[in-house]
Amino acid sequence: MDIINSYFELADGNRMPREGFGVYKITDQTILNQSIQAAYQTGYRLFDTAQMYGNEAMLGNALKDLDVNRDELFITTKVSEANQGYDQTVKSVQQSLKDLQLEYVDLLLVHWPIHQHFFETWRAFEDLKKMGLTKSIGTSNYGMGHLQLLATKAREMPTVNQLERHPWFNQSAMIKFDQDNHIITQAWAPLGRGRMMSNPSLVSIAESHEKSVAQVILRWQLQSDIAFIPKSSHTERIQENASIFDFELTSDEIKQIDSLNQNTRISQEPELVYELGHQYPHN
Ligand code: NAD
Question: Could you name the active-site residues (predicted)?
Fold first, then answer.
């Protein structure tokens, strides 16, 4: 098994690579072009952006530069809080596609749940799928309550729920809930933004496998049966992060990594974003 051949089948019948490439904070065209080239050559096929990242047009240029068949790529974008609501969602996705220079995305996500436009945004998502502007629809940062609420009116449920997930915030209950509801969990900040690279337990496991801590964390994500989208703009790390299919963590090592959970988020609390209708200043 390797990165190119490792897929999940989604509930709607489409396929999604298990490991993808995140482009948050890469906002320089040259660096983005180099990163996308290196990632594609390494075997990444899923590229994850968002309206909020301000780099959809740059990603569009970088993908055009790759000059590969559209069906070789799996492109995700996300509708920002400011663009939620039926008409605004449709309009903003049309603009995203223009910027990305694509006729469709493979996966469209609601970036954060907000109460103001909760059902209308999703109705637009269902229609955008019917219109062929996205192959699959999903959510991001939705908790159990948000998904249960959505189910009261949705004609079609999300196929993917993209969540913050790393050894300090392992989301085991949420992953189980997604699994029980045929939703693939996709981890964002799967490396915890690089903050746990000197953790002694992780270092010791990495040494025993002659792998890096980043590879151990990503292998833990893989063995947790979820999808994940690490980000790096360095070719060596891009390759390193994909070289995780040639070793296996023991169940004891998995337990050890699970036990590092501190239930601490790097980013926003979804319930507050839902309440406020937008993201809020945080560390
Ligand atoms: P990440 O966990 O992928 O961490 C990236 C950082 O880890 C890099 O900037 C670098 O500092 C470090 N790193 C990467 N590879 C390394 C290696 N091999 N060795 C040592 N350090 C390494 O964090 P992220 O970028 O926040 O998350 C990944 C992607 O998830 C984003 O790019 C974005 O596409 C997506 N995302 C989604 C949401 C959401 O709300 N849905 C939020 C944040 C990010």
Answer: 53
